[in-house]
Give the backbone structure.
Amino acid sequence: MTVNHHSQTGTNLLQTALAKPYHYRRSGHYYLRLRPQGTAKGFYTLSLRTTDKATAMTISQDILKTLKAYHFDNPEATWEELRERLIDIAESCLTMAHGDSSLVAYEMIHDEHYEALREASAKLPLSVNQQRAVGKALEIIEAAQDRLKGRPGKLVGIVEGLKAEGCGTSVALSPSLSVLPSSDVLTFKALSGLYMDELKDNVQASTMRDVRSTCEGIGAILGELDLKTHTREDMRNLRAKLLEDRKPSTVRKILTRLSTVMDWGVNNDYLAKALTDGLKPTKGADSAREAFSQDQVKALMAHAKTLPVDAWQRWALSLGVITGTRIEELRQLTKADVKQVAGVWVIDINRNDGKTAKTKNALRVIPLTDGAYGFDLQAFLEFVPDKADSRLFTLGGGQFSVLLNGMLRDVLDLKADRTQTFHSLRHSLAGALKAAEVPVGTAESILGHSSGSISYDLYGAGASVEVGRMADALLKAFGIVAS
C-alpha cells in the first residue's frame, strides 16, 4: 500500500489508534484517508489504485484489517492472540474473489505491504511475539502473491499450520534446523531450504521472494524424489512437466534456478552429481511480455505530447519509449543523470547516491533521440532543472509502477493480464533495433544486456565512438535521417 503521510505530530501509524476513516475520489481514482484519534493535525492518505468503487471498498477493508492485525500498539499481546489474527488474514487472502483490476492492485499492495512489515520489524520496538507475528505475516504475503497467480498450495499449508498449533500439533522447524529428514533422503525441498538459508543475507528481499517461489514450484513437482539417487530421466520428466503449462522462456528461468541449487548441492557435498547440464529448452523460448506494435507506441507518444510539459507522466512515458529503460531504472533518475557525453545528451544509469541496478551490466548511458516519435529534447531539458527535488520522479516504486502501467492500459485499452506492460517498451525498442539491422553488441549496450557496457569507460578514449555509435543506431531504429 502507498501511504502519503501528512502529519506534523510525529505519530506512527502502526502504533496509533485510528479515527473513523473516509474515502474520496480524485482524478477518477479512489483514496482512503486515515487520521489518528485525538488529533486533527495528522492524517494518512492511501491510494487504492483503482477507479472502480466496489474494488476500492474491498481493498480499503483489507487495508484497515491489516493495520489492526498485528497489535503493534499492544506489546503485551500474546502469541495466541496474534496467531488468531494471522489465521484470519491468511484465510482472507486465500478465499477472496478477484477481478482483473483487483488482481493487479493486490499484487502491488502485497509487494509494498511486505516491505512495510520488514521496515517495521527493523525499526519498531516490537515484542518477541510481535516479531514472530511479523515473520509469519511475511510468509503469508509471499504465499498470497502465489495465490494471485493460481498457486494456492503454500497459503493452504500456512493456514493449516497455524491452526494445527492451536490443537497442540507440532510445527515444523525452519529449514536451517530441520531440513534433512532422519531417513537421510534428500528432497529438493530440503536441499533448496539449505541453499536459501545461506543465500538470504546476500540478496535483496525481492530477489529472495523470487528464489523461494521458484524453488517451491520445483519442489512441488519433484516431491519426495531422493536427489542422492536421481537420474537424468527424472530431470527430463521435470522439464516436461514444467512445459505443460508454462512458456519455454519461463521454464528456462526455472531450470536455471534448478541448476544453481543442484550445483550448490554438489559444491557443498550434499550431492554427488547434478545432471542438469543441457536441460533448458532452446526452441520456442518466447518472452512472457509482448512488445507494443508501432501503432501502439505512436499512440502512447501522441498521448504523452498532450500532457503539460511540467507533468512527470509525460517524460516518464517518453523516456520509456525512446530509451527502453527498466521502470525502476527510470524512477531513480536524478538531475545529474541527464548529461552530455561526447556532445550527445544521454541518461546515465548508475548506482550513485544509493540507486540500485538489476545487474552490473545494466550500468550504461543511453542517448536521447530528439524527434523520436515526436520527442522534444529541448522541452525535456527545460523540465529537468525545474524539478525542486534532485530526483526527476519522486514517487515510490509501487505507486510509480501502478500509475504508469495504469496510464498505458487506459490509453491503449489493454487487458489487465500483464502481457503488455511498461516493460514491453523494452521489447518494442529491441524489435526496432533488430529491424534496423543494428549490430547485436550496440543493441545490447543500449538495453543494458552487454557485458561490454560503455559505462565502464564512460569518459575514456572510446567513449565518443561508443556513444556516437549508439546515437546513430537509435536514429536508424526510429527512422530519423541524421543531419
Strands lie at 2-6, 22-26, 29-34, 43-47, 338-341, 344-349, 364-367.
